[in-house]
Amino acid sequence: MPDAWETSMGLNPEDATDRNTRGANGYTMLENYLNGLTAPVLAVAASNSTTELLQAYPNPSQHELTLAHPVASRGASLTVYSFDGRKVLTLPAASGTRETHIRTADLARGSYLILYTDAQQRLSVKFSKD
């Protein structure tokens, strides 16, 4: 599992045994990761709130990506990670909005993970840069 994914799920990238931790859905974290390889969206709630999904389009992206997210609360942010675990971009999600535009033109070709965080939830979605 990539370190960025483990970190976004509250796991310790240095502890291989935490892959056996069961998530709220009853699956182990390893199973959640593997299931996420075939699903476009990975999500986990920081509390018992209802999980809402993220959508990233166009995917793959060349110049700009639109991220559709839950209504952003004050302090909501987006962090983009490369699949080798490097943080490549952090930006705020404007309070009260449901979409954030991300400039991808300067990113290298490859796969990325976007982590959306606000006071109630942490959501992630994968996208590709052509």
UniProtKB/TrEMBL annotation:
Residues 1-22 are annotated as: Disordered. Residues 57-125 form the Secretion system C-terminal sorting domain. It comes from the Bacteria. InterPro entries: Secre_tail. It holds the Pfam family Por_Secre_tail. NCBIfam families: Por_Secre_tail. This is T9SS type A sorting domain-containing protein. It comes from Hymenobacter volaticus.
